[in-house]
Write a structure and sequence with these properties.
The protein is mostly helical and 68 residues long. The protein has a domain at 7-44. It is 69% helix and 0% strand. The protein has helices spanning 7-21, 26-45, 56-67.
Length: 68
């Protein structure tokens, strides 16, 4: 299965999570984890956006113009 984790290991992890979090909180935690993974994958697939910052020399020119 997942990197050497079989069905018995997954069942043990689920039982421990159920004991620690409780049956009411477990669906919320699973949903949050799924959304986090989905957001991470989306961010990894999107190209980097251009930086909205101005180049340093342009900022310095604007400062000198304002002083005059």
């Amino acid at each position: 299965m997942l990197g050497g984790i079989g069905m018995p290991e997954l069942i043990v992890i689920l039982v421990i999570a159920l004991l620690v979090l409780g049956p009411k909180k477990l669906p919320d935690v699973a949903r949050s984890l799924g959304e986090a993974i989905r957001g991470f994958r989306k961010a990894m697939n999107e190209p980097e956006s251009a930086s909205p910052e101005k180049p340093r020399h342009q900022i310095e020119e604007e400062k000198t113009i304002r002083r005059d």
